[in-house]
Specification:
Layout lengths: L2 H29 L3 H25 L5 H29 L3 H26 L9 E4 L5 E3 L16 E4 L1
Antiparallel strand pairs: 1-2, 1-3
Helix pairs in contact: 1-2, 3-4
The chain binds fe (ii) ion (3 copies).
C-alpha cells in the first residue's frame, strides 16, 4: 500500500467517525435546547460524509454491487465471528456493562446483516421490492414489517424506523 493509500484509509476512518460524532452531538444539542448548534453539527456531519465518500472512491474501494455485497458480508462476518465476541469478553472482564450491551446488540445485528446481504446477493437479478425497518435502540434490521417486540433488545414496534 502506498503512503497516499494509507492516508486515504486513515482520513476515511477519521471523517466517518466525525460524521457520527457530530450527529450524536446534534442530538445532544437538540436535547439541551440549542437548535442552531444542532443544525451546524448536522451540516458539518453532512460535509464529513462528502469527504469520507470521496476518500473511499479515491481508494478504489467502491466496486460493483455484487462485489460490494461480498465485501459487506465478509465485514459483517468478521465482526460477529471475531471482533465482537472478543470485545464482549473483555468488557465482561472489566465489568463495563454499557460496553457489554452495545457490543452484544451489535454482535447480534451483524449476523442479521450478513444474512440479509447474502439473500440480496443470491437473488440480485430477480429482487422483489421489500421494505426494511431498523430498531432505533439496537439496530436490529428486518424486512417487510417491524415485529411486535425486537428480538434483540425487546423494544416495542414503535422503536422501529422505516428505511427509504
Ligand atoms: Fe472533513
Ligand atoms: Fe452491520
Ligand atoms: Fe432492538
Amino acid at each position: 500500500m502506498t503512503k497516499t493509500e494509507q492516508n486515504l484509509l486513515e482520513a476515511f476512518a477519521g471523517e466517518s467517525q466525525a460524521n457520527r460524532k457530530y450527529l450524536a452531538f446534534a442530538k445532544q444539542a437538540e436535547k439541551e435546547g440549542y437548535p442552531q448548534a444542532a443544525k451546524l453539527f448536522r451540516a458539518a456531519a453532512e460535509a464529513e460524509t462528502v469527504h469520507a465518500l470521496a476518500h473511499l472512491v479515491a481508494l478504489g474501494y467502491v466496486k460493483s454491487t455484487a462485489e460490494n455485497l461480498r465485501e459487506a458480508i465478509s465485514g459483517e462476518t468478521h465482526e460477529f465471528r471475531n471482533m465482537y465476541p472478543a470485545m464482549i469478553e473483555a468488557a465482561k472482564a472489566e465489568k463495563n456493562k454499557a460496553a457489554q450491551r452495545s457490543f452484544s446488540y451489535a454482535n447480534e445485528v451483524e449476523k442479521v446483516h450478513a444474512s440479509l446481504y447474502q439473500k440480496v446477493l443470491d437473488n440480485l437479478e430477480a429482487l422483489e421490492d421489500a421494505d426494511y425497518y431498523v430498531c432505533s435502540v439496537c439496530g436490529y434490521t428486518c424486512e417487510e414489517k417491524p415485529p411486535d417486540r425486537c428480538p434483540v433488545c425487546g423494544s416495542g414496534s414503535k422503536a422501529f424506523l422505516k428505511v427509504d
